[in-house]
Design goal:
280 residues; alpha/beta; Spore Coat Polysaccharide Biosynthesis Protein SpsA, Chain A; 5-stranded mixed sheet; 3-stranded mixed sheet; 13 helices; 12 strands
């Protein structure tokens, strides 16, 4: 398989001067099957200025910046930023030009080459789930999210619930499956289905456990379409989630992709890692 894979990066105002440029640099440097990069943001001018300041360009990869309002209706634009990003990712096929595209979070950095072997089993994209090395509350929380999403899809999460944690901040999404998902939701909820299923507020973890774009996609594949998809455990190593200063201190630099979850993490402690990975 040699087809390129476009990458979508959703960027909020808080991301622009933190890790956005490193996220883009890491994609250019480490994402082996890279096609083009599409950045969708509610702060287009600031994003473009930062890309220029960082001199982020490539002779082979086009970087296109798009306003949220070009993707979302006025009603959807009224939703909180976290919700808007969920919808944009679930419309990645309407933004990117490749039939299979990757969503990369703007606070997530590729620190080693991500190859087709990491992403595919044969010709099929791998569906990753996660487990942490030590006992944690994350799995219980994510299984709550699976149950909530399954209720929205009106299905029993027979295959998805045991796996539980589908939060992968580098995620492959197939255009054909996304179209089926949106049609399925519209059949249940009518036009603008996302208005009916997204939380009206997302200020707390309790708000956010009611929905999740990657979980929705996984439950739809596994328990609605029941596709035979290759499944792989990330072991918090293919993609590592760093939630706190303590986890940052314990990080052994043994992952391919790192998601710096907490936006209050001290950037001065992250910068040496970015320099080591060649994406500072």
């Amino acid at each position: 398989m040699s087809a390129d894979i476009d990458v979508l990066i959703c960027v909020g105002s808080a991301d622009i001067h933190r890790l956005m440029s490193s996220s883009v640099k890491s994609c250019l440097r480490h994402f082996e099957p890279l096609g083009n990069i599409y950045i969708v943001s509610n702060a287009v001018s600031e994003v473009r200025l930062e890309l220029e300041r960082q001199d982020l360009r490539s002779p082979t990869v086009a970087i296109t910046v798009i306003d949220d309002r070009e993707i979302l209706s006025p009603k959807l634009m009224a939703l909180p930023g976290w919700c808007r990003q969920q919808i944009i990712r679930l419309r990645i096929d309407q933004i990117c030009s490749t039939s299979l595209a990757a969503s990369l979070s703007a606070d997530t950095v590729l620190c080693r080459p991500v190859t087709r072997t990491d992403l595919f089993e044969g010709a099929s994209p791998i569906l990753y789930f996660n487990r942490y090395q030590h006992t944690s509350s994350h799995l219980d929380y994510e299984r709550r999210r699976v149950r909530n999403v399954a209720q929205l899809l009106r299905v029993e999460p027979v295959r998805s619930l045991p796996l539980g944690d589908f939060i992968m901040d580098l995620k492959l999404l197939e255009a054909s499956h996304l179209r089926l998902l949106r049609d399925y939701l519209n059949d249940i909820y009518g036009d603008e289905a996302f208005l009916h299923i997204l939380p009206q507020r997302c200020e707390s973890l309790e708000d956010k456990v009611t929905f999740g774009e990657w979980t929705l996609y996984a439950v739809f594949l596994l328990d609605v379409l029941r596709v035979d998809v290759p499944i792989r455990n990330s072991h918090n190593r293919f993609i590592t989630q760093i939630h706190s200063e303590r986890e940052l201190a314990l990080f052994r630099d043994d992952a391919h992709v790192v998601h710096f979850v907490d936006k209050s993490l001290d950037l001065t402690r992250i910068t040496p890692l970015l320099a080591k990975w060649g994406v500072a």
